[in-house]
Amino acid sequence: MTTTLDLIIEGGTVIDGTGAPRRRLDLGIAGDRIVRLGDLSGVPAARRFDASGRIVAPGFIDVHTHDDRLLLDAPQGPHPKLSQGVTTVVTGNCGISLAPLQSSGTPPAPLDLLGTGAWRYESFGDYLDELEACGPAVNAACLVGHSTLRVRRMNRLDRVATAREQQFMAADLDAALAAGAIGMSTGLYYPPARAADTAEVIAVGAPLTKAHGIITMHIRDEGDAIADALAEALQIGHALGIETVLSHHKLVGKANHGRSVETLAMIEAAGRKQSVCLDCYPYNASSTMLLPARIAQSDDVRVTWSKADPTAAGRSLFALARERGTSPEALAEALQPAGAIYFAMSEDDVSRILRYPATMVGSDGLAHDVSPHPRLWGTFPRVLGHYARDRGLFPLETAVHKMTGLSAGRFGLAGRGIVAENHYADIVVFDEQSVGDSATFDQPTAVSTGIEAVFVNGKLACQDGESRDLHAGSVLRHGGAR
Ligand SMILES: [Zn+2]
């Protein structure tokens, strides 16, 4: 039987996402699938895309995002994810998900990082249904946030949840998993979940075990107390017996620089008795809500947004405090609610963590910030250009694996992340020589270079940075739930 091909991507060199060496292959696509691989010259097709001299790879999977709300919009102009070659995102990280939570006001920070006015989903299934109905720009695999469940079920957040509240949260998670959520995320570092203890997380997360869900964790401390925080996260994953993802692994504060040697050794040891992996963004600055406690750990702090003083966005907190004759801590209080970028990591740790075999790439970008961290627009081309090509941290095949096949395998995204027959046609075509990030701390939304074409489910979604189809994505429901 012969299938009529809708599209042939021809002449390119395929890096297939498994980490295997590159090969010369044409791709034959019918509908949303890759159906033929090989020399397809002379094979008829409705359209042909010339990828001569270019790398053809699986579309990138951004395993760490806060795109819950971005996915509901179809933004004008270039798209922060498509323009990087990203075709799938994992949402709901760090304990923060848009659903299930109905609120007419603004929920407490850091939930407000998802923006305002979209807290309207009483059930997780409602959110997935709406996402599916509007057609997201990229594929979405969605996590339920533990902090969101706490805000939904608890009248105050400064204590451990009662047994009854834990049961309610577990039932919410169970329903979300049945609707297609892929797992749960936690953010024990953040105020809404700081009072939760280890036992609470294990009790709330109990439905993950039977459903074979995943847990991603923004651990309780990434500074002086990181060893204890890491041990707690590993204990939670081990108790639940599920895949455990340590989110945006990093070491914050000068006193902790270099300690990735110790933390990666802990992860390596744990990996012998449980399934654990991690993600990382390729920058030595972090970004989240403006937290006075983080200021002293940082060489510089940049304001990304402020409700109280919108003019502060993009400015150095230290410079602004000097101008105004106040302390950075007092200014941080006055700017609330607000977000910031913190320069508090060492490049050696970033490189060491990125190179670690179980490390995937996740942007952690914050799409609703006025002056966002450049990781929102530059993460994936930066790994390919700066880290793989220019610095030689690893071969390009390894870089691609860390953003495709490794990620799809760990997150259970069937048929994604590898160029193979019968897999979905999520494809990026890029120029190995010119691929790179353009976004900087001063120009945070500059479009990356070298990403020539991006196909989502067989449809041309982005070409040379310009969006072509903002609705080609699918909701990737866990276990094929509907
Ligand atoms: Zn986080």
Q: Are there runs of 5+ residues with pLDDT below 50, and where?
A: none
Structural class: alpha/beta
> How far apart, in Å, are the first and last alpha carbons?
31 Å
CATH topology name of the largest domain: TIM Barrel
Mass-distribution shape: globular
Largest sheet: 8 strands, parallel
**How many domains in all?**
3
Features:
482 residues, alpha/beta, Urease, subunit C, domain 1, TIM Barrel, Dna Ligase, domain 1, 3 domains, eight-stranded parallel beta sheet, seven-stranded mixed beta sheet, 15 helices, 24 strands, globular, binds zinc ion
Structural commentary:
The structure is a single chain. The protein is an alpha/beta fold. The protein folds into 3 domains: 1-57 and 418-434 and 450-468, Urease, subunit C, domain 1; 60-284 and 345-416, Alpha-Beta Barrel (TIM Barrel); 293-343, Dna Ligase, domain 1 (2-Layer Sandwich), CATH 3.30.1490.130. 28% of the residues lie in helices and 22% in strands. The chain is built from 15 helices and 24 strands. The chain has helices at 124-134, 146-153, 163-179, 191-194, 198-204, 207-211, 226-240, 260-270, 292-295, 317-323, 328-335, 347-355, 375-390, 396-402, 405-411, and strands spanning 5-10, 13-14, 23-24, 26-30, 33-38, 45-50, 55-58, 60-62, 86-91, 101-102, 120-121, 139-145, 183-187, 214-218, 244-246, 276-280, 285-289, 300-306, 338-343, 359-361, 427-430, 451-456, 459-463, 466-467. It has an 8-stranded parallel sheet, with helices on both faces. α7 runs parallel beside α8. The radius of gyration is 22 Å and the shape is globular. The two termini are 31 Å apart. 56% of the residues are buried.
